[in-house]
Amino acid sequence: MKGFFKSSIGKKVLMSVSGLFLILFLLFHLCMNLVVVFSASAYNEVCAFLGSNWYAVAGTMVLAAGFLVHIVYAFILTAQNRKARGTDRYDNQNLPAGVEFASKNMLVLGVIVCCGLLVHFGQFWAKMMYAELAGTEGQFAPTDGAAWINWYFHDSPLAVAFVIVYLVWFAALWLHLNHGFWSAFHTVGLSNNVWIPRLKCIAKWFSTIICAGFAFVVIFAACGGINTKSDCCNKEKCGAKTECHQEAPCNPQTCPNAEQGK
């Protein structure tokens, strides 16, 4: 078994399995983000439920490990390809139609995706989960995810730039997913003429739904569609970071100092 994971096929299997794991996370993350389109308060409740709880932190560590495995083996396999084939790393005659660009540039697309993730982590994870763990204060409460989304894509002076950066990120992610999805299944054994066309079709639909969904949330926020008013009591009593409905009762989910504000 140890020798298998040192082999080229073993490394491809590890990268494929970790990639499929990350794809499942993207699906979960999209479902979570779409909540903000329907209700900012419901989205904040989801953020509060996850927050810095032990299961959320544990899940983040597992996700980070899967991401690290995927990245490390991507670089290792790319280096092996270049060493074995020189600059002609791909047999163009065997490339599937419609994915030639992606298959030739998976590492470049992956680097763009990683850069987008770093921006995303700096804007959201650092201001939400990490801020809650560290006990630091920010412009908004760590659990007020709707306010953070609204700020970066609508209220910030750099909102337009952030929207463009995220849309470019999603385009690169689409190309990476579209090829990587079916290629991962190909690596783990589904390589016959029946399943490959099916997997390519599923990959195209899946990557389109994922990336279009994320893009929709960004554009929805950019158009001012998110209502960030919290259902909480007087702002001074409550200590909330966002604008509040003055007549509403204190809500512990959205008001950090709800008990004191009663």
Description:
With about 260 residues, the protein is mostly helical. Helix content is about 70%, strand content about 0%. The chain contains 12 helices and no strands. Helix 2 packs across helix 3. The longest helix has about 30 residues, at about 55-85.
Task: Offer a concise description of the structure.
By secondary structure, the chain is mainly alpha-helical. It has a single domain, classed as 3 helical TM bundles of succinate and fumarate reductases. Helices cover about 70% and strands about 0% of the residues.
Task: Set out the fold topology.
Layout lengths: L1 H5 L1 H31 L1 H11 L3 H32 L14 H5 L1 H20 L3 H6 L10 H11 L3 H29 L7 H28 L12 H4 L19 H4 L1
Features:
3 helical TM bundles of succinate and fumarate reductases; 12 helices; mainly alpha; globular; 262 residues
Instruction: Give the mean pLDDT.
Output: 80
Shape: globular
Helix count, per DSSP?
12
Category by helix and strand content: mainly alpha
Q: Which architecture name does CATH use? A: Up-down Bundle
Q: How many angstroms separate the termini?
A: 61 Å
Largest sheet, in brief, is: none
Rounded Rg: 22 Å
Total number of β-strand segments? 0
